[in-house]
Design a protein that fits this description.
The structure holds two protein chains of two kinds. Chain A has ten helices and eight strands. By secondary structure, chain A is an alpha+beta fold. Chain A has an eight-stranded mixed beta sheet, with helices on both faces. Chain A is globular and about 60 Å long. Chain B is of the alpha/beta class. Chain B has one domain (4-393): Peroxisomal Thiolase, Chain A, domain 1 (3-Layer(aba) Sandwich). Helices cover 32% and strands 21% of the residues of chain B. In chain B, the strands form three sheets. In chain B, strands 1, 2, 5, 6, 7, 9, 10, 11, 12, 14, 16 and 17 form a twelve-stranded mixed beta sheet that branches. Classes of the chains: A alpha+beta, B alpha/beta. At the A-B interface, helix 4, helix 5, helix 6, strand 3 and helix 7 of A face helix 4, helix 6, strand 6, helix 7 and helix 8 of B.
Chain lengths: 270, 396
């Protein structure tokens, strides 16, 4: 099995009690207690006002984490390939469509319908950034973060260009909530490069494996990791937050997990 | 780039179950679209329904995956010796080295649409409803991974109508990176209320069988299909084999449900595919257009194609045959291109009567027999997601 070697230049984060990556480092490192208070979503300021009013939680979430990672890495979003990933897309919007289709009047709102596609955040990201670079949108149920990491890493390696990974999950309202409980909206972004740059934070060597998973020692973080697919990334984020090189095993699919060896790099750019 | 060899491929659509009826429908220029009130749908429209899906049973050990989309997937995989070819590849490479990357837009959402009609007094869904294995977008890739007892990477690409073209790119990159040796790619999308009423809400559904590139085109006809290809590194391809030689992806950065009016994103995707394949525009023998039959989509694509190919590359849309199969369209039309290459003909479009004089491409109304080496297939989706594939026949 070949390892994939890629470089991590920027991170974005938004989740319960976590407004951003920068503001969450101490909690993730274990220096301050973790409180899972309701996720605060910033407005999608990058969109024109007419579009901004139409967008739901996944678009706000993906834009918040995406732009944080882009700024953290010091790259331009205008020519950046992006891998979007989410287990359910816009779950509020999906529920509203299902209710309408089960009612006596099945006429759907056109905006609801075009926002129902899984790649809606990608469409709005393109409108916001003007980027015509390739963009994809993935789902692998609980394995969605691992799927997106493989896709973004191989995209960066094949193109020789940076690639932005976005993973974001939101909850359905009832009755689907009962079947697919996602307790908090959570999103993470990582700017990956095929070669190291002055801004690189770490080198990641990724390999496919089947071994014991890394878990979070903090019970609140562990409940998040095990209940939200995008939060399967937490063991990796915690390693970075602690400023440690090391190795974690991230949950991917049945019979297939992902080992990531992280080597910290001395970042020379601010 | 490293090309991808299509070791085996198959298509089930309104044209029939497997390659044989598909090829004979293309040869005879037969459309699979019929005017029908499907399920409880009260819209006046034509659909491209696959015969026999309602009565098809998924394998007993995979009952928890039972839904229209996965029935259609299994039905398609069991045609044309596809499942046997996959098992041979697994025996050769190992179950961890064979991946599953499939496209879908609506997965098995029909199951949840029906379950919502049967909510109890407390608003709960029926206990039998299995969200994760039917409605979730990943369901079909999960189903196929379990069907073959695989342990390799898997995911679903859901970029609306470009989904099952883009999976070829994922497979190519992962094979090139050395992560896998083979992948099951393609796409499955099945009829559901969300897309029928949804496209209707955008006034994009025709009452008639769709007429791509016609002066009087007035919208899409929705179809369903399952297309599969087993792809491996093209290094071992033999003369006559079909390979994917170019993949171009781009974004419109323009609008959620309308294409860039000048076809700019489409042009970028087509040019990127040509560049990756190392081909010039005159090398392309046939273009399978996205050609949805809406006024603006066909006009934008025509501008994009004309800007690169001018007026002399034969092209057509096969959506008049199959309907717009949405997340399965890219895979379905890649298979149609593979059949066109193997059988040395460019398929003419159907239903179209008067080609729109405002459109400049060389749109085929009849089949054109000619030696075929390279075919390009366009797939463009909502959110401005574009993908062009080039399929090539390896020379003797």
């Amino acid at each position: 099995m070949n390892d994939l070697r890629i470089y991590l230049d920027g991170i974005g984060l938004c989740g319960p009690g976590m407004k951003s990556w920068q503001s969450s480092v101490a909690e993730l490192a274990g220096a301050t207690p973790v409180l899972l208070t309701q996720t605060v979503l910033p407005a999608a300021e990058a969109l024109p006002p007419a579009e901004r009013r139409r967008v739901g939680v996944p678009i706000k979430l993906s834009m918040a984490v995406g732009f944080e990672a882009v700024h953290h890495a010091g790259v331009d979003a205008a020519n950046l390939a992006v891998v979007f990933s989410s287990t359910g897309g816009d779950c509020d919007n999906c529920h509203a469509i299902l209710e309408t289709l089960a009612s006596d009047d099945r006429q759907l709102s056109p905006t609801r319908f075009h926002n129902s596609v899984h790649n809606a955040p990608s469409g709005y990201w393109g409108i916001a950034t003007g980027s015509r670079a390739p963009s994809t949108s993935l789902c692998a149920l609980d394995a969605t973060f691992g799927a997106a990491l493989l896709e973004a890493a191989t995209q960066a390696l094949a193109s020789g260009e940076p690639c932005l990974l976005l993973a974001y999950d939101t909850a359905y309202p009832d009755p689907l909530y009962a079947l697919r409980p996602i307790p908090f909206p959570f999103g993470v972004a990582m700017l990956l490069r095929p070669q190291p740059s002055a801004a690189s934070l770490a080198c990641l060597d990724i390999s496919l494996t089947e071994e014991a998973l890394s878990v979070c020692a903090d019970p609140a973080l562990e409940s998040l990791r095990s209940s939200v697919p995008a939060a399967r990334s937490l063991p990796l984020l915690q390693l970075l937050a602690r400023g440690e090189s090391g190795r974690v095993v991230i949950d991917y699919l049945e019979h297939l997990d992902m080992a990531i060896k992280l080597t910290l790099l001395p970042r020379s750019a601010p | 780039m490293r090309t991808l060899r299509l070791t085996s491929f198959t298509l089930t659509s309104a044209l029939g179950h497997g390659l044989k009826p598909t090829l004979s429908a293309l040869r005879a220029q037969r459309s699979g679209l019929v005017h029908k009130h499907w399920e409880t749908v009260d819209l006046e429209t034509c659909i491209g329904e696959v015969a026999g899906v309602d009565d098809f049973a998924v394998r007993k050990d995979l009952q928890h995956f039972d839904c229209r989309n996965n029935r259609l997937a299994q039905m398609a995989m069991e045609a044309d010796g596809f499942a046997d070819a996959v098992r041979t590849a697994i025996a050769r490479h190992g179950k961890r080295r064979v991946a599953v990357f499939l496209g879908t837009s609506t997965s098995g959402i029909l199951s949840t649409e029906i379950a919502y009609r049967h909510r109890d007094a407390q608003g709960r869904l029926p206990a039998s409803h299995n969200y994760s294995h039917t409605h979730n977008s990943y369901s079909v890739a999960n189903f196929v991974r379990h069907y073959f007892d695989l342990e390799g990477p898997a995911f679903v690409v859901s970029t609306a109508c470009s989904s099952s073209a883009k999976v070829f790119g994922s497979a190519q990159r992962m094979i090139q990176a050395g992560l896998i040796d083979a992948a099951i790619v393609g796409g499955v999308d099945s009829l559901c209320l969300t897309t029928l009423y949804g496209f209707n809400s955008l006034q994009l559904v025709s009452r008639n069988a769709c007429r791509p590139f016609d002066a009087n085109r007035d919208g899409i006809s929705i179809g369903e299909a399952a297309a599969f290809a087993l792809v491996e590194d093209g290094a071992g391809a033999q003369p006559g084999d079909i390979v994917v030689s170019g993949i171009g992806e781009s974004s419109d950065a323009y609008h959620m449900s309308s294409p860039h009016p000048e076809g700019l994103g489409a042009r970028l995707a087509m040019q990127a595919a040509l560049d990756m394949a190392g081909l010039k525009q005159e090398d392309i023998d046939y273009i399978n257009l996205h050609g949805t039959s809406t006024p603006s989509n066909d006009a934008a694509e025509d501008k994009g194609v004309f800007a690169i190919f001018g007026t002399h590359t034969p092209c057509s849309s096969t959506k008049g045959h199959t309907g717009h199969t949405l997340g399965a369209a890219g895979g379905a039309e890649a298979v149609i291109c593979a059949l066109a290459l193997q059988n040395d003909f460019a398929p003419g479009g159907v239903n179209t009567q008067d080609i729109d004089p405002a459109l400049q491409c060389q749109y085929l109304l009849a089949n054109l027999d000619k030696p075929m080496r390279h075919a390009l297939s366009n797939s463009f989706g909502f959110g401005g997601s574009n993908c062009s594939l080039i399929l090539s026949k390896v020379a003797a």
